[in-house]
Design goal:
heterodimer, A: about 200 residues, mainly alpha, about 0% strand
Chain lengths: ~200, ~60
């Protein structure tokens, strides 16, 4: 008689629940948005990229173990950013054809007062307004410097040091060798330090 | 220059920038998360030509 054993429950327990995926996305969504923004340089497009990445994760990989989510999400996010550039390339080819048609400047229509307010956050608050302004300026300069890095260097830097993936995970997310990750990271850190030094910021 | 140390200092500033995200953007990200979680329980998209799923928050 054939006895089919049940899959041990400890394996089931490791699979991500709805709440765990929700908590995971809540934890990474802001950094994911910034990563997308550094790459695509447009807030609306960055939001679309993050939303698409979140959808792909929940639709296709919801049954994966919790421990795999950070790596999976980063891979999806990077692919979604690349897809954005591919679509943009195709779109720009078509819009060039029709560029003679009139353009409407509707910047004012998109104004949203909410967009001008900083989000509530209790972390990283400093009491001294002058220090806050100074830190805000440094953050701005660092973000500008990061946006000026070559795409692969920025990708490697953010995955390795900001998302804290190890070299192998970063290589897998980027689809390159571990040696390339190390080279990209080294160049990125040196380039960032040089760019910031040129602006009078020593870290 | 210590590469890791410099990288950590830079990412600490990036964290500060992330914490100062605009309220509107943070809210849109929250909506995106909710939409993604809601879509997780729904059947896969029916056919390629049919637009489905949540509205794009970025408006594109």
């Amino acid at each position: 008689m054939l006895i089919i054993h049940r899959i041990p429950t400890f394996i089931e327990a490791q699979l991500a629940s709805h709440q765990e995926i929700s908590a995971f996305l809540a934890e990474v969504e802001r950094r994911a948005f910034k990563q997308a923004l550094f790459a695509v340089r447009d807030e609306d497009s960055a939001l679309d990229v993050v939303q698409d990445a979140m959808l792909k994760l929940t639709e296709k990989y919801a049954g994966k173990p919790v421990a795999e989510l950070p790596m999976l999400f980063q891979r999806i996010l990077q692919n979604t950013i690349h897809d954005h550039f591919r679509r943009q390339k195709v779109r720009s080819a078509w819009t060039t054809l029709f560029s003679s048609f009139g353009q409407k400047d509707n910047k004012d229509d998109d104004f949203d007062l909410l967009e001008t307010l900083p989000a509530k956050s209790d972390s990283n608050r400093t009491a001294d307004p002058a220090r806050q302004v100074e830190q805000g300026q440094i953050v701005g300069l660092i973000e500008q410097a990061l946006a000026r890095l070559p795409a692969r260097q920025r990708e490697a830097f953010l995955l390795r040091y900001w998302e804290e993936l190890d070299v192998a995970e970063t290589a897998a997310a980027m689809g390159c060798s571990e040696g390339s990750v190390k080279t990209h990271c080294s160049r990125a850190v040196h380039a960032l330090a040089e760019m910031l030094k040129a602006k009078g910021i020593s870290l | 220059m210590n590469q890791l140390e410099t990288a950590k200092k830079i990412t600490a500033y990036l964290d500060k920038g992330t914490a100062q995200l605009k309220a509107g953007t943070a809210y849109k990200l929250q909506l995106a998360r909710q939409a993604a979680l809601a879509a997780a329980g729904q059947p896969q998209r029916s056919w390629p030509g049919k637009p489905s799923g949540p509205r794009r928050l970025g408006g594109r």
